[in-house]
Amino acid sequence: MPERSDSQLPLGEQIARLRRDRGMTQEQLADRSGVSVSVIRKLEHLERDSASLSTLHRLAAALGVTTMTLFCPAPQLTALPDDDERDDLHAIRRVLQPPRPGGQPVKFADDDQAPNLGELERSILLARRMVHADNFVAAVQAVPLLIVGARAAVAADGGERAQRLLSAAYTTAGNLLIHMRKDDLAYHALGLGMEAAHAAGDLVLVASSVAGETWLLIRQGRFDEAETVALATSEAIEPSFVRSPARQVASWGWLMLGASAAAVRNNRPDVAADTMAHARAAAVRVDAAGDYRGDGTTFGTAVVDWRTTENALVLGDIETALRVARLAAPPVGPSTGYHRFQLDVAAAHLEMRQKDKALAILVDLRHRAPSWLRRQRYARVLARRLADTYKRAIPADVRELVIFVGAAEVRG
User: Fold this and answer.
1) Separation of CA 339 from chain center
2) How far apart, in whole angstroms, are the C-alpha atoms of residue 363 and residue 71?
C-alpha cells in the first residue's frame, strides 16, 4: 500500500512526522511551543482530532511551518457552486448542525485548559481577514475551531466578552458561507450569531449579523424584507457622529448600504439615494477615525464608492457607474468586496461596448482570485455576454475564461 502524502495525514500524524524530522522529542516540542506534553500526546496518539486554533498556531511556530500545514487534509473548494459534488464543509456542518438528539460535542486535545479569550479574539480577527482576502481554504479550516473554542469559553466563563466572541465566530462563519453561496447554512450561522450577541447585550454586534442577513435576503429577491430589517436595526443603533465609537458608526453604515442595495433593486431610487448618502456620511466619520476594521473588512468611503457604482449600474446609469468607479480607491490588500466591484465595472464596460476593458478585468480577477471568481454566477453571465459579442471565432483568451468560470459552452 503506498505511503500517504503529508496532505492526507491526520493532524496528529502530521505533528509527529514534523517533530521527528526536526529531531525533537514530545517534551522538546512542548517546551518550544508552550503546549503541554499531554495535549501533544493526545494528538499524536489520535485520541483527539484537533485542538484550538491558538494551540495549532503555537505548534506550527515551534515546528517552523505555517498553521495551514497542519490543516490536513485541506478542503477541495475548486468545484463550481452548482456542482452536485460534496462541498467539503463537513467540519463546519458538524459544529453548526450536530446530530439530534444527543449529538456528541466536538472535543479538542486541549479541552481541559482554560480558554484564553485574548488568543481567541486574535484568532477570530485572523479568520475574518481570511474571508476578506478570499482565502477560503484556510477559513473553512479555521472557522469550526473558532466556534468550538468560543463555545468552550462561554461554558467556562459565561460573561459578556465570551458571548461576544461566540457571536463573532458565528458571524464570521455566516459571512464565509455567504461568499461560498451556502445560503441556508449561512442563515443558520448568522441567527446563532444574533442569539449570542443578544446574550451579550451588544446591539452593535447584533447589527453585524443583521447586515449579513440583509445580503442573503437581497440574493433571494426579498427586497422589502431586506430594506425593512436593515432600517429597523439601524434605528436601534443609530450613532452620534461626534460621540459614538467607530465600530458603531461602521455597523450603522453597513446597514445603510444594505438598505440602499435592497431599495435600488426594488424600484425605490429615492430611498436608495437617501440611505447611500447616510452611508457616505458614516464612512467619512470612520475614515477620519483612522484604520478601523469591522468584521475583517474596512468600512469607509472606498466601500461606499464601490456600492454607489453598483447602484448606478442597477439603475442603468452607466456613465455615472464608470465615473464613480474611476474615483474609487482600491483596498490596501485583497478584498472580496473589491472583486465584486470590479465585476460591476466589467459589466459597465460591456454596456459601453468596451469589451477589451471588460476582458482585462475578468482575466485579472482570474489570476488574483480564481476560487472566488469560479463561484460567482455574475462572472459566468459576464463571460457569456462577452463571448456573445464576437460574431465569428471567439478569441482563445475569451474561450479560456468562459470555460474557467463554467459558462455555457462557447461557439466557434
Assistant:
1) 13
2) 30
Q: Hey, how many other C-beta atoms are within 10 angstroms of the C-beta on 197? A: 25
CA-to-CA separations, 251 to 172, 177, 179, 246, in angstroms, rounded: 15, 20, 19, 9
Strand partners, 50: 108
What is the C-alpha separation between 261 and 395, in angstroms, rounded?
35
Residue 91: band (very low, low, confident or very high) from pLDDT cuts 50, 70, 90:
confident
- Exposure string (b/e) for 311-321, b if CB count within 10 Å is 16 or more? bbbbbeebebb
| Grid coordinates of 18 | 514534523
Helix (H, G, I), strand (E, B) or coil at 143: helix
With beta carbons less than 8 A apart as the criterion, state whether 139 and 179 touch: no
CATH class of 1-67: mainly alpha
What pTM was computed for the model? 0.82
Domain residue ranges of the chain, discontinuous segments joined by +: 1-67, 75-201
Q: How far is CA 33 from the centre of its chain?
A: 29
Residues in contact with 149: Cβ distance below 8 Å, sequence separation at least 6, in sequence order: 52, 53, 54, 108, 115, 120, 123, 169
Which range in 63-72, 130-139, 316-325 is most confidently predicted, on average pLDDT? 316-325
Which amino acid is residue 129, in one-letter code? R
Query: What type of residue sits at position 274?
Result: D
CA distance 90 to 82: 18
